[in-house]
Amino acid sequence: MPFSDSPSPVAPLPSSRLWTASTTGGVAVVIMLLLAAARPDMAAWLLVGAAIVALVTWLGSRPVDRAVTVLGPAIAAAETPAGLGDNRLLDAVFEALDDPVMIIAGGEADDIAGRRIILANRAARDLLRIPRAGSLLVSAMRDPGVLEAVDEALFGGLGRTTDYTAAGARERHWKAWVRPLEASPGGGRTAILGLRDETDVRRMELMRVDFLANASHELRTPLASLSGFIETLKGHARDDSVARDRFLDIMAAQAERMSRLVADLLSLSRIELNEHIPPSGRLDVARAASDVVDAISVLSQDKGVTVLLDVPPLEARIAGDRDEIVQVIQNLTDNAIKYSAVGGLVELSVRSDLDTEAAAAPRLPGAARLSLLTPDRDATARYVAVTVRDYGPGMAREHLPRLTERFYRVEGQKSGDRPGTGLGLAIVKHIVNRHRGGLMVESAPGEGSLLVAYFPQLDAAPAIEAAA
């Protein structure tokens, strides 16, 4: 912090005892010297008496000196509330704040590049990736609203609050507040800039709006079908057993579709709400993939599709939520089975210890390729990649950018034997994003599709498998 760490000098304390002893001794010595001058025959004895008085005076003053020396710092500390005179405590408090806080110094009013961060706490340094002091504000935060608020505080003396959205793969919303500070002794202008995280509040608002909009739109069709069949069964088809059985089967399918839709919407909303919070669990991706293959064995057998699993000999551990990673692998494998022909083949593989380029490397010659999600750049990161390959009808290039949109289905692939809500890949993208990973797709008409989800790999240190 921009404060001196040297302790303040302790002022000498007044002492009535010290003053009395010194004065008395001095007067006595002066009187004895005058008597010695008047009576030379008594000079020797008077000088001896003066020496004794001086010695007693000095000895009497010593306890007072010691009291001043010992009690002075204690009294000075007691006069400072809670020991705040120690700037190290202020440093510790500043560093311990959860909200990012910075002290900004201004240059000339027309020199935007002159705004400099002279102090930043740990939260600010981690968020904006800036050094402890000396960074230019414009290089750390490029939001025009925040820069304008800082200028108003520096040169107008006005406090202001504005919105700030942090850049990156995971969008975060902050409320930025700026307040002017008193001028420094050198005459420079300073202001304090703080950020308050409002991501949860924004996500809750968006979740409510999106859920209502999507539910009302997607539930309209199955509800209309149910209402129509109910009216038919109550009318002329009341006594028609064949029509009644057929209508009841359709109604059951529509009700099941609505149930899946509501479940997927709730799942997607929950994932989006926590997308900015890194997961804290640990799991082996290879073991999760094996569990998924076992879970979907009934579906693959009914469809007559063979699922081949290829996992590395060593554990492929990542930091993640086991249920969410299982959901990613299951959604990708379900899609591959759904769009495979009867008797087809789906290949599921897990690879570990890959860099970013190797994890997202192309595998289908001549196929269109697109990165749907790219993690923040980190040259030292290693990844675990989950690859799902099918040999179905494939997709044209123009469909790839929209695969992770809600309710998007490739035209011509909406037949009744492929039920789905259109939310599977949207859920996959948000889960992968929460885990700081990436998502890539390759496809070509008639050649099938390949999707790769990759996640940052943990170090080789042993970890405990997260509970299922």
TrEMBL record:
Residues 214-459 form the Histidine kinase domain. The keyword Transmembrane helix applies. One of its GO terms (molecular function) is phosphorelay sensor kinase activity. GO terms for biological process: cellular response to phosphate starvation. It is found in: Cell membrane. The chain crosses the membrane at residues 18-36, 43-61. Keywords: ATP-binding, Cell membrane, Kinase, Membrane, Nucleotide-binding, Phosphoprotein, Transferase, Transmembrane, Transmembrane helix, Two-component regulatory system. GO terms for cellular component: plasma membrane. Pfam families: HATPase_c (PF02518), HisKA (PF00512), PAS_8 (PF13188). Its EC number is 2.7.13.3. CDD domains: HATPase, HisKA. Its main location: membrane. It catalyses: ATP + protein L-histidine = ADP + protein N-phospho-L-histidine. PANTHER family: PHOSPHATE REGULON SENSOR PROTEIN PHOR (PTHR45453). This is histidine kinase. It comes from Brevundimonas subvibrioides. The lineage of its organism: Bacteria, Pseudomonadati, Pseudomonadota, Alphaproteobacteria, Caulobacterales.
